[in-house]
Amino acid sequence: MSYREYVIAAYVAFALMLLWDYLVPKLQIRAALRAARRRHARQQPARPDAHQAPLSRD
User: Fold this and answer.
1) How far apart are CA 49 and CA 53, in angstroms?
2) Measured in whole angstroms, how far is the alpha carbon of residue 15 from the centre of its chain?
């Protein structure tokens, strides 16, 4: 491998690591937010059906 090829490979590896360091935290945050939304939805009491709700004449 010549010096030029080594430098190109080093820059490519550096760019890939920068991309990895940018994308992975974003994906982890997205997954954590999705899990928190699902957990919140499970903890909410079930809403009554519209057919079973009393009618209001106010």
Assistant:
1) 6
2) 22
The dihedrals phi and psi of 11, each to the nearest 5 degrees, come to -65, -40
Using CA atoms, how far apart are residues 7 and 57, in angstroms rounded to an integer? 78
Give CA–CA dist 44/36, Å, rounded: 12
d(CA 53, CA 38): 25
Output the six-digit token pair for 8. Answer: 């190109």
pLDDT tens digit sequence for 6-52 = 999 999 999 999 999 999 999 999 999 999 999 999 998 766 565 66
Instruction: Please give the model's pTM, rounded to 2 decimal places.
Output: 0.59
Residue 38 DSSP one-character state = H
